[in-house]
Request: fold
Amino acid sequence: MSSETRMHVSIALSKIYEATFVKHKPSPMFAEECKSAITFHDDDPKSNVAPCYALTAVLQAVVDVGNQILEEGNILQTLMAMTRCQDRETQCAAAEAITHAASDTKRIKGIMTEAFGCLKALYGKNLPNPIRVRALVGLCKMGSMHGGAVNMRTLAEGATVNLAKKLRPFLVGEDTTLDIQRWAAEGLAYLTLDAEVKEYITADSAILKAVHRVCMEGGNAPVADDRVPCCWSMHSLSCGFLFINLAVVVVV
Reply:
């Protein structure tokens, strides 16, 4: 077991999902097997940490299947209750699951309606940075729901730039870690769909250097495609997308 075990499991699940396609359509059996393996309990938030990690692994493998599970019963409400628990691991697990669920463009509006306040509360509290950065990245995903479309913004004007500024300490702070930087870089990757955020980042050399460092020091986290160097973790790929988004500003 290591910090990358869950990612190994997610990649395996992703490969199994692809292998079970029938006539170019996913087999319903895969989703049913995942649903039957993940059981949440209503009575004790701490007891839901393990199924929460399992749900996160499925969300990282196939976000659509993960969110099908999330829609079962009152699982989203259970995750929200976990964010209010005083146990730090429980809060962190719930924040991570909700943030991964927000990657689903088809369901993000409903998730935002339900869970935006919980993530905002987690970020605003005096909690360890691993919890706060996960909550903040979830807010970034929700805030960039419609990309850079001005007429479809979900947050007030200037809010996305403000979110980028809040991510900055997690990237360049003296007490930050590589894991926290990975999360912050992922949040920026979503925010750079906004032109104002692109301009803000390209003017900040410290952020650019930090993101580059995450790309180069991504560790040995695996990716689903063997042709991609193993140093490129999933968060490192987010850094790559971030630089692609920024290239538009640089070229112009």
Q: What stands out?
A: The radius of gyration is 18 Å. Confidence is low (pLDDT under 50) at residues 220-233.
